[in-house]
């Protein structure tokens, strides 16, 4: 009896020891397939966890070494600077302003004139019988105080029509109305810019904006504008207007009017010893040359 109890105690002790040696996983999967699936995953979990941790440590260490080593690598990257392109601004030459010289006054053609001889009444006895008067070569003879060779056409000489007034009183050429206020076309002394024609030329060249036609897109060429303006009896310039200009004029008409209108006083024209109004004309040529 005693032996049986001891034997049972030994058997019970051995089974308890076996149970302790068996994992809970084996107990759960008793009589089940243990070749794959959840059993293998649970059984190898610790080993896989340790492998993952070790792999993470190795990778972290490797990246740290690369990062530290990369700072010591000399920077051999060269920066290529593109070639600098210099853009040169080509300035177009300023157009030249050509002021034509005033035309020479036209000379009147010579007219054939026969000297007028005052007739004298003589006694018939004093006249030789064989004297014959000279034969007249033409009927259209212009009578004058002297003999002169030249053109002999009707209408070249005519008696001027008498007009009353300061302008046309037989003492000189002037305005058609005969008053002193209307501008003269022909005078004894023309109006003059202070300093003469050379000073007038310098004034225009200095004040005219030569680049005006270029700024308005004018191609190469010459552009002329004729301007008329009035110089009154006090020398004040007014009534500046364009007589002739190209189409299009590329702004040269307005520029010519601007410069002439803002000019100084002129020395007025003189007719019969008095200052009179006189209309002046000026032709200005802008020359554009493009490279």
From TrEMBL:
Record-annotated membrane-spanning stretches: 49-68
Gene3D superfamilies per record: 3.30.1150.10
Example GO BP: transmembrane transport
Annotated SUPFAM superfamilies: TolA/TonB C-terminal domain (SSF74653)
A Pfam family assignment: TonB_C
Segments forming domain TonB C-terminal: 225-287
Keywords: Membrane, Transmembrane, Transmembrane helix
Name the record gives this protein: Energy transducer TonB
């Amino acid at each position: 009896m005693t032996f049986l109890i001891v034997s049972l105690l030994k058997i019970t002790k051995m089974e308890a020891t076996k149970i302790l040696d068996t994992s809970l996983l084996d107990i759960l999967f008793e009589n089940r397939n243990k070749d794959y699936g959840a059993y293998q995953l649970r059984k190898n979990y610790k080993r896989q966890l340790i492998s993952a941790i070790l792999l993470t440590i190795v990778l972290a260490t490797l990246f740290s070494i690369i990062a530290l080593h990369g700072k010591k690598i000399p920077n051999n990257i060269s920066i290529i600077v593109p070639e600098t392109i210099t853009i040169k601004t080509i300035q177009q030459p300023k157009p030249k302003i050509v002021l034509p010289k005033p035309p020479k006054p036209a000379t009147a053609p010579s007219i054939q004139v026969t000297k007028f001889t005052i007739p004298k009444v003589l006694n018939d006895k004093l006249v030789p019988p064989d004297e014959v008067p000279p034969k007249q070569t033409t009927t259209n003879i212009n009578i004058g105080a002297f003999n002169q060779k030249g053109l002999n056409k009707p209408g070249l000489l005519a008696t001027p029509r008498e007009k009353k007034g300061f302008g046309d009183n037989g003492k000189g050429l002037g305005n058609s109305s005969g008053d002193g206020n209307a501008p003269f076309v022909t005078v004894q002394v023309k109006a003059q810019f202070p300093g003469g024609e050379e000073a007038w030329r310098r004034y225009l060249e200095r004040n005219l904006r030569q680049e005006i036609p270029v700024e308005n897109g004018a191609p190469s060429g010459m552009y002329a504008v004729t301007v008329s303006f009035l110089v009154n009896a006090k020398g004040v310039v007014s009534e500046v207007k364009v007589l002739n200009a190209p189409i299009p004029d590329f702004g040269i008409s307005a520029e010519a009017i601007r410069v002439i209108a803002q000019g100084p006083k002129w020395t007025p024209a003189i007719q019969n010893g008095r200052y009179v109004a006189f209309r002046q004309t000026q032709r200005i040529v802008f020359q554009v040359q493009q490279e």
